[in-house]
Amino acid sequence: MTAIVSLVSNLVFGNLSDRVRTRFGRRTPWIFGGAIIGGVSLTLVGVLTNPVAILIVYCITMVGLNMMLAPAIAVISDRVPLQIRGTMSAFFDAGQTVGFPLGAIIGAAFITTSLPGYVLAGALMLIGDVATLFIWPRERSAVGTEARGGGFLDLVKSFRPPSPSRRPTSTRRS
């Protein structure tokens, strides 16, 4: 269930962060909102005892996580010069490569007392993401920028996968 929620929410929030225009920019509100939703709901998972409630709240955690991740990945193409995007993308992935096993090692320390582990994980999710927003160069207001796409129907259409009949044709000649 959480994998499906993650897949869908990643697509939704990546798409929405491309379209929303706020005085805080396009990406920052999603990253900040995701930090709050993800951090609070992950902490709540440690408090719950009902398996159905745990599943629902953990799905909410995945929504929060993807509210952060999809726009954060888009930040690379938004703010990093083309010449060093590959390098920045490699650093982003190296952080994940190191962070996932490190998180598992730290999480293993909380196997017998899980509540402090969930509280720590939720706090780290919240604090780490908000700290990232302060470290990154501040995103400019997107209020005056041109909106991408049209209304709700255009948003829904944007989720269609590409097909050969809809593939853009190149005007370049060989």
H/E element string?
HHHHHH
Helix content: 55-70%
Number of H- or I-type helical stretches: 6
What is CATH's topology name? Growth Hormone, Chain: A
Query: What CATH architecture label applies?
Result: Up-down Bundle
Give the key terms:
globular; 174 residues; mainly alpha; 67% helix; Growth Hormone, Chain: A
Please provide a written account of the structure.
It is a single chain. The chain is an all-alpha fold and 174 residues long. It has a single domain, classed as Growth Hormone, Chain: A (Up-down Bundle). Helices cover 67% and strands 0% of the residues. 21% of the residues are buried. The model has no long low-confidence stretch (mean pLDDT 84).
Provide a concise account of the structure shown.
With 174 residues, the chain is mainly α.
Describe the secondary-structure layout.
Layout: H1 2-19, H2 28-45, H3 51-79, H4 85-108, H5 114-135, H6 152-157
Helix pairs in contact: 1-3, 2-3, 2-5
